[in-house]
Structure formats: structure tokens, C-alpha cells
Amino acid sequence: MNCKYSCISQLTLSLYLMTQCQLKLRHSVTSLAQTLDYIQGDRRRHPFDATLDQLTLKLAERKISDTYHGMIIHVTNWLKLATNFQSAFSGASVHTVH
């Protein structure tokens, strides 16, 4: 049995489980970014043909990326709303009562 194709390292499994926990517990973006750095470092450490390690790390990386993508869309929509709100009221005059 060639372990290269069917085994997973302890570090890879730990990073995957850590990613899952952080996402379920809604950790900060900073915490997820640090985990993503660890994942990318571990992916470089494993040879390309360490299939199970590579696929597991790619899955964890993808889960974090999907979470970031959702946050980016949310922030972008909020900024568009704020810009539209500001432009809608920029032409309105403000009357004060004395």
C-alpha cells in the first residue's frame, strides 16, 4: 500500500478541523486569514502527488475563501447602499427652524 496516495498527515487533518471549528464558531476574519496562511504553507510542504493531503487542504482553503467571498459581497452591497443614500440626499437642502 502506497501511503502517499491514501494517508493524511496529522497537520493537514488538524488544519482542516481547525478551519471547520473557526467557521462554525464564526471566528474573526483575522483568525481565518491566519489559518489560510497555515494551510497555504502546508500545501507547499507536501508534494503534489500527496493526493489526500492536497485535496483536504484545498477543501479547507476553499471553505475559507467562500466565507471571505460572502463577506466581500456584504461589504460591497453596504457601500453601494451608503453611496446611493448619500447621493440621494446631497442635492436636498436642509432647512433649520429658528
Quick gist of this model?
The chain is an all-alpha fold and 98 residues long. It has four helices and no strands.
Computed structural class:
mainly alpha
Mean pLDDT: 80
Q: Which spans have pLDDT < 50 for at least 5 consecutive residues?
A: none
Work out the helicity level.
over 70%
Keywords for this entry:
single chain, 98 residues, mainly alpha, 78% helix, elongated
Q: In terms of topology, how is this protein built?
A:
Layout: H1 3-6, H2 10-24, H3 29-45, H4 51-90
Helix pairs in contact: 2-3, 2-4, 3-4
Can you walk me through this structure?
The structure is a single chain. With about 100 residues, the protein is an all-alpha fold. It is about 80% helix and about 0% strand. It is elongated, with a radius of gyration of 22 Å.
